[in-house]
Amino acid sequence: MQPHEVFLQQLITGLSNGMIIALIALGYTMVYGIIELINFAHGDVFMLGAFLALTLLGVLGMEAWSPTWRIGGVAIMLVGSALFCGGLNWTLDRVAYRSLRRASKLSLLVSAIGCSFICTNLGLFWGGVPMEVFAGGVAAAAPKDFPQLIPQTNLLGASAIRITPADIAVVVVTVPLMIGLVFLVNRTRMGRAMRAVAQDATAAALMGIPVDRVIGITFFIGGALGGFASVVYALYNNTIGFQMGYRAGMDAFTAAVVGGIGSLPGAVLGGLTIGLVRAMSDQYLETQWTNTIVFGMLVMILIFRPSGLLGTTRREKV
Amino acid sequence: MKNTLPTITFILIASLGLFASFAATAAQQSESSKGTLHLVSSLPRTGSANAQTSTMVNGIKLAIEEVNGQIDGWTITYQDLDDASPQRGNWDPTVEAQNANAAAKDRSCVGYIGTFNSGAAKVAMPILNRAGLVMVSPANTYPGLTKPGTGEANEPMVYRPTGKINYFRVVPADDLQGTQAANWAKSLGAKKVFILNDRELYGKGIADVFQKRAKEIGMEVVGFEGTDAKASNYRPLVTKIKAVGPDLVYFGGTTQSNAGQIAKDLRAGGYEGLYMVPDGCFEQAFIEAAGDSNLNDKTYITFGGLPAEKLTGRGATFREAYHKRYGSDPEAYAAYGYEAARVLLDAIARAKTKDRAGVLAAVAETVDFDGVLGKWSFDANGDTSSKVMSGQTVKNGKFEFVKVLGD
């Protein structure tokens, strides 16, 4: 491989990874934008989405399907996981967060951490389900192989640069979702209600906006994005495990903060930045420094630009 | 004052219970004339290592059953401790320290079988050393745990605060395995190698040995990198590897530190060369995590011992007994779990005093032991004199024995 080919390849890999991170980061940033809660359970909701996708794959026997049908299978998983994660996130809000709306922000945060633990352990149980896709459920905590429904072959034939159908799938799923989300928030009635609640919940309530319902819907959408992300992640990496939510959530949270938490374009920019920084650091520095660089970047941003790359400054409430 | 009555009742019941349990213990002890000698094992039982460690625990139980749980009128009891936590899905230093402390405090405990991971041994060794409790590892292969001059400058003395040796292992160390792996890589035709390690004690240790040997025998080392065991994928790293064009990638690490995902990403990223891993990946969980199509015919696994189906003599007896007792085949390390337990039982039988000091002294004097890999003895460092190594590959989703590795 020529140096410029290596660079291009890292660009492609970085962008693919970055888009997945961005999609998860959107879930963090939406919830933060509206109730200023860092929803620590988000990464684990994302993880459970991947388990649902693998379960659907196993129950419907998608591995035996023809390539055309497999695309339909992916669509089923995307819809299933999105509804499931959206519903789960909505339920978390209803059960664990709503009654704490007037409590201190810290109580809410602790509640979120508790939800994260519960979800992680649900994933641990789920991995022990005696199904063939979970390798019989013998080792619940072991990583699970997620079959290659979307092939990882090179579309450019013998070229040194690889673009695989899995890379394409990442773009095809994430980009429309991001555009759709921006449209939803900026152009629809619901979006306007969300922005109103984010700005001032009391005033919004006085204007007749059903605040709790709007917050619930925000949680649903954030969770659904996590659900979509989980399927894309599983198709791209071909491995899922009950701990994947931690690292993915950490990266996505960092992305949201780097981009400016609360800002939708910020989350996307942050995600892509982290994906690219990871790839370039692996290539041009040493792999063992990559985490240091990513989290060092987070610290730098917090010191010199606390509101993030695209965030707007506003009063701190926490 | 309404609550007084329930409180008093509670205290009464509680003290009755306490008394009953004392009485029970006393009765138990009077049944066997001489008392109880307790063995524990500390192995990762949560996570993907469980498949492997389950068969090791089976091996230990088998060894104890063979003596009917009795030696010279002493009752042998055994407890299977887990040194992993669900949070890590892998061995956890906090849990390992708890296990070691619990064993150290229990005066009836005369032997500690473990650990599985060399990093965990580093935690347990000083604790057990202070307690004078003998530790026999069925699986640690990091050389620095026993051999001076192979690891850090302060190893292994840092693990022996009392200056006495209480740690023994029945498995050959990685100064042999890493060297043999590099020799084998060369004989497979590799000229340029890229070496990865998981930055753990075991993985980094064996990768260092592999690198040293690879250079000695004239292979070109085109990269040496530490990986992140929790990364979601290694695609950027694979691109980096492909750019320098090695014909063999060596990963010093375990299934738990993501050897399977690395195999997956190497293939998904279009790398077509060979992939070699050490014994930390010699378990079915590795094939399951990687997906067999990513491993078949191009993956090589070294192991300090022989796979169960190749054992002869005492080892073959073990394999048959295991199959008869459990109805399934043991994983690679089950034989060493069995061996570690037998070494302890043999030492208990020979011990002059049936306590920690006696058993420790007897273990150290183990000579010409009739083990599953033939006759061996412990040397002055606590290492086995056995040097049997084997090489495996993966065919159709199964491990397949290739050859015995030797000079």
How many domains, in number, for the residues of chain B?
2
The SS-based structural class of chain A is mainly alpha
Beta-strand share of residues of chain B:
15-25%
Mean pLDDT across every amino acid position of chain B: 89
What's the Cα radius of gyration of chain B?
23 Å
Globular, elongated, flat, extended or rod-shaped: what is the shape of chain A? Answer: globular
Task: Describe, in plain words, how this protein is organized in 3D.
The complex is a heterodimer of chains A (318) and B (407). With 318 residues, chain A is mostly helical. Chain A has helices spanning 3-35, 42-60, 67-97, 105-126, 165-187, 189-199, 201-206, 211-237, 244-259, 264-284, 290-304, and strands at 144-145, 239-240. Chain A has one domain (10-130, 155-304): ABC transporter involved in vitamin B12 uptake, BtuC (Orthogonal Bundle). In chain A, strands 1-2 form a two-stranded antiparallel ribbon. The radius of gyration of chain A is 20 Å and the shape is globular. Chain B is of the alpha/beta class and 407 residues long. Chain B has two domains: 34-172 and 311-376, Response regulator (Rossmann fold), CATH 3.40.50.2300; 174-303 and 390-405, Rossmann fold. Chain B is built from twelve helices and 17 strands. Chain B has helices at residues 4-31, 50-66, 93-105, 118-131, 174-187, 201-216, 235-244, 259-268, 284-290, 314-326, 334-350, 356-364; strands at residues 36-43, 70-71, 74-82, 84-85, 90-91, 109-113, 135-137, 167-169, 192-197, 220-226, 248-252, 274-277, 299-303, 369-371, 374-376, 389-395, 398-405. In chain B, the strands form four sheets. A seven-stranded mixed sheet of chain B has the order 10-9-11-12-13-16-17. A six-stranded mixed sheet of chain B has the order 2-3-1-6-7-8, sandwiched between helices. In chain B, helix 5 packs across helix 6 (201-216) and helix 11 packs across helix 12 (356-364). The model of chain B is unreliable at 22-30 (pLDDT under 50).
